[in-house]
Design a protein that fits this description.
The complex is a heterodimer of chains A (262) and B (241).
Chain A lengths: L2 E9 L5 E10 L4 E5 L6 H8 L12 E3 L2 E2 L3 H10 E4 L12 H8 L2 H10 L4 H4 L9 H13 L5 E5 L7 H16 L3 E6 L11 E6 L2 E6 L6 H6 L6 H11 L9 H9 L1
Parallel strand pairs in A: 3-8, 3-9, 6-7, 7-8
Antiparallel strand pairs in A: 1-2, 1-4, 4-5, 9-10
Helix pairs in contact in A: 3-6
Chain B lengths: L11 H4 L2 H14 L6 H18 L3 H9 L2 H14 L4 H23 L3 H11 L8 H31 L9 H9 L2 H21 L15 H20 L2
The chains are: A alpha/beta (262), B mainly alpha (241).
C-alpha cells in the first residue's frame, strides 16, 4: 500500500474543520481521482500528503510507503518521493528563463523530452520567462519540473484547469501513460469527463468527508447527485446501450451511432 | 490569519472614531522618538499594553505582526552594538521604537475597515487642490489590500520550494540570504500581474474619482482617547532626562 489515511481530521485557520474523520488508501501504481465540488477539501488533502500543512495536528493518521508522515526525518524521506503540482502553478517558477528553470530542476535533456511529450517545443520557449508563457504552457512546464524530481507519487491539483479540450486530452493521455509505467498518481478534479478513461480508483469528497471510495463511481448515482456531480454523457450513453444489449467501448460509440442513425 | 487584515470584534478600540485613531496612532509613533530613558520606554509600553487590552485582538495576531520586525531588529541591534558601538540603552530604545510602532500601527489597521480608513485619510489631508489627497488614500488602500496577497504568495512559494526539496531551516546564514533574495523575482512578477488584474477589474467596474468627506463622529471614548494622549505626551516629555 502506497498511501494510507486513517481517521484524518484537520482544522484550518479560525478553527474551521476542513477534513472530518477521513479514511482511504491508495495502492502503489494506482491512478486515484479525488472528486468533489469546490471547497470540499481536495487541495487540503494533497497539501497534507505533501507534508506542507498540518504538522501540529497530525501524528498517526497518514502512512506513506508504510512510514508515518510525522517528524522531520520521516517527512523529508517521504517528500523526496513525492511531487506536487499546485493549481496556481506559477509558484513553481523561480528563474528568469525556461532553460534555467529546467537546469535547476534536474536533467535538462530529460526535461526537453518530457516537454516534447507534452507537445511543447523547447527551442521556442527556452529563452522566455516562465511567467510569460500561456496558462497551458505554464502548467505543462510545472508538470515537467515536478517529473524531473523522479517521484514515485505524483500529486496534481486540477491540472487541466485553463487548458483547451485538445491540450487537456493530451495531458490526460500523458498522465495515463505515466501511470501505466508504474507511477502512483493522485489527481483532484471536479470535471467528470476526464476521470472516465484513466482512473483506477475514485474518492468522492464532500464537506471534508469521504462519500465514496471505490473503483466504479458511476454506479453510485445517488452519491454523485448528492455531491453535485454529473455522470458524463458518454458514460450514460454506454450504460443505456449496454442495457439494450450493446456492449460497446467508448471509441466504438461514434461509429455505432453513425451506422444506426445515418 | 492574514487573509484579511481587519479583525471584526466588539471592543472599545473598534468603537473609536477613525480620525481619532489616526491622530492617536500618529501621535504615539512620533512620541516614541522622545524616549530617552528607561522610564519613558516603560510609560510607552504601558500605554501600548492598555491599547492592546482594550482592542481584544489577542496575542496570537499581535505576535504575528511582531515577528515581521525580528530580522530588522536583529540586524539593527548587531549594527548598533558592533558597528556604531552604542550603549545598551540605545539598543533597547531603537528596538522598542520598532516594536511599539509596528504593534500600534497593526492594532490600528486591524481595528479599522480599510475603506473607512481611506475615506478618513482622504478627508483629513489639507490643501486638496495642491496635495492629491484622493490618490494618496487610494494608494494607501491598495497597498494594504496587497499585503495579505504578498503573504499568501510568499507562503505558496515557500511550499513550492519544499516540494522541490529545498529546506530553508537547513541553510546557513549566507545561503538563507541568497535563498530569500530568490523570492524577489517571482514575488515581483506575481505582484505586477495582480496589480494589472486589479487595474483591469477597477476599469471594468467603472471606478471613478469621487469626492469623499467623512464627518467626525465624536463620542465619549474619543474624548478619553485624546485626554489619554495628552496625559501620555506630558508624561513622556516630563519623564525625559
Amino acid at each position: 500500500m502506497s498511501i494510507s489515511i486513517k481517521n484524518l481530521s484537520y482544522e484550518g485557520e479560525n478553527e474551521k474543520k476542513i477534513l472530518k474523520n477521513m479514511s482511504f488508501h491508495v495502492d502503489e501504481g494506482e491512478y486515484c481521482f479525488l472528486i468533489g465540488e469546490t471547497g470540499s477539501g481536495k487541495t487540503t488533502i494533497l497539501e497534507i500528503l505533501m507534508g506542507l500543512i498540518g504538522e501540529n495536528q497530525l501524528q498517526n493518521e497518514i502512512k506513506i510507503f508504510k512510514k508515518k508522515l510525522f517528524g522531520k526525518k520521516n517527512k523529508r524521506v517521504i517528500q523526496k518521493e513525492i511531487s506536487y503540482v499546485f493549481q496556481r502553478c506559477e509558484a513553481h517558477f523561480f528563474k528568469t528563463t525556461v532553460e534555467k528553470e529546467l537546469k535547476v530542476s534536474g536533467d535538462l535533456e530529460k526535461g526537453i523530452e518530457i516537454l516534447k511529450l507534452l507537445s511543447l517545443e523547447y527551442e521556442e520557449i527556452k529563452e522566455k520567462s516562465p511567467f510569460e508563457l500561456s496558462g497551458g504552457e505554464k502548467r505543462k512546464l510545472a508538470i515537467t519540473i515536478a517529473l524531473l524530481k523522479n517521484p514515485k507519487i505524483l500529486l496534481l491539483d486540477e491540472p487541466t484547469i485553463g487548458l483547451d479540450g485538445k491540450s487537456s486530452a493530451e495531458l490526460m493521455k500523458f498522465l495515463g501513460t505515466l501511470n501505466k509505467n508504474g507511477m502512483t498518481i493522485i489527481q483532484t478534479t471536479h470535471i467528470m469527463e476526464e476521470v472516465m478513461d484513466y482512473a483506477t480508483k475514485y474518492v468522492v469528497v464532500k464537506g471534508g468527508e469521504v462519500m465514496y471510495d471505490g473503483t466504479d463511481v458511476f454506479k453510485e448515482r445517488k452519491i454523485l447527485k448528492n455531491c453535485r456531480l454529473d455522470i458524463p454523457f458518454e458514460r450514460r450513453l454506454l450504460d443505456a446501450l449496454s442495457k439494450k444489449g450493446f456492449n460497446l467501448e467508448k471509441e466504438e460509440i461514434e461509429d455505432f451511432l453513425l451506422e444506426r442513425l445515418c | 490569519m492574514l487573509n484579511k487584515l481587519y479583525s471584526e470584534k466588539e471592543s472599545i478600540v473598534h468603537r473609536i472614531d477613525i480620525k481619532t485613531k489616526i491622530i492617536y496612532t500618529f501621535g504615539y509613533v512620533l512620541s516614541l522618538m522622545l524616549m530617552n530613558n528607561f522610564l519613558t520606554v516603560f510609560i510607552s509600553f504601558i500605554i501600548l499594553v492598555f491599547l492592546l487590552l482594550f482592542s481584544k485582538l489577542g496575542m496570537k495576531k499581535i505576535f504575528y505582526f511582531m515577528k515581521t520586525t525580528f530580522p530588522a531588529l536583529i540586524s539593527i541591534a548587531i549594527m548598533y552594538k558592533f558597528v556604531l558601538e552604542k550603549t545598551n540603552f540605545e539598543i533597547v530604545r531603537i528596538s522598542s521604537v520598532l516594536i511599539f510602532s509596528t504593534v500600534s500601527i497593526s492594532c490600528f489597521v486591524m481595528t479599522t475597515k480599510v475603506t473607512e480608513m481611506a475615506k478618513a485619510i482622504e478627508s483629513m489631508i489639507p490643501f486638496k487642490k495642491i496635495i492629491p489627497a484622493y490618490e494618496i488614500s487610494l494608494m494607501f488602500t491598495v497597498s494594504l489590500r496587497f499585503l495579505p496577497m504578498f503573504i499568501r504568495e510568499y507562503k505558496r512559494i515557500k511550499k513550492a520550494k519544499i516540494c522541490r526539496g529545498i529546506y530553508i531551516e537547513d541553510m546557513n546564514l549566507k545561503e538563507k540570504v541568497k535563498h530569500v533574495l530568490g523570492y524577489f523575482l517571482p514575488m515581483f512578477l506575481l505582484s505586477l500581474e495582480h496589480a494589472y488584474n486589479l487595474a483591469i477589474a477597477m476599469e471594468v467596474k467603472g471606478y471613478r474619482k469621487k469626492e469623499r468627506q467623512v464627518e467626525w463622529n465624536f463620542e465619549k471614548v474619543d474624548y478619553i482617547m485624546f485626554l489619554l494622549l495628552v496625559v501620555y505626551l506630558v508624561l513622556i516629555v516630563g519623564g525625559r532626562k
